[in-house]
Amino acid sequence: MPIYEQTYRRYEARGPLRAVRFWPITREALRLVLAKRAFLGLLLVGWVPMLARVVQIYIVTRFPEANRVLPIDGKLFGEFLNQQLGLSVLLMIFGGAGLIANDLRTGAILVYLSRPLTRRDYVIGKLSVLLLLNLSVTLAPALLLYVVGLGLAPEQYLKLDLWWLAPAIVTQSLVMSFSLSLLSLAVSSLSRSARVAGLGFFGLFAGLEMARGVLRSVFDAKWATLLSLQADIRAIGATLFGITMRRWEQVPVLDAGLVLLALAGVCLALLRSRVRAVEIVR
Q1: Dihedral (CA of 187, 183, 269, 252) sign
Q2: Residues 166-201: pLDDT tens digits?
């Protein structure tokens, strides 16, 4: 009987399960994050602005003359999503800082990658956590606000010229969520401390905003607005919803999109270099 050489073969999950191998990582990380009552409170706070916008729509439907002071056109949804940007940053600081940093500190990342999981499964699993958190305070309340608006003021929103409103809500929510989630995850992979990673994310976000302000005010460098991640995201929303931005926030939407794509590429490159199945000790 011939003897065939048996080399190492990676253990793979069953075919039907391979597409969702990342889900246990997402589920466990979500469980740990949502176990904190303070974090749950932060998520609930994220729905308060939506309730305020519902009240605004209701007031205008009862008192149409109030529309001049509290307009409820399509711009309302873009302004709402811009308002949620600050909350999304807080969610990334408190919810995303430790996703990879804690695994690097405890060595859990080596345990994950020793199982039938690829590096892509691990990154998608962790990224899905941040996307779900972001979308829970952007896309979910914005779409609910849109549905409530259709019910309270159908004559205002059931118009052919507002067909773009729902797609614009989805697009802006995804742009915001992917940009912040990728950046938070990349920063988390650079440290073994969740606290340091959280401070690093806040410092990077705020530092770029300060650099933009200094360069614009001192050197009148208009291109410096591109350094602001907040301005880049809002530039996309301004185009989608027809919002007039303040002069210091105005930036070409194409340039803003290219900056966000470049940022995503840098974040993915960092994750590729930091997420390893082996630990290199120097």
Answers
A1: negative
A2: 999 999 999 999 999 999 999 999 999 999 999 999
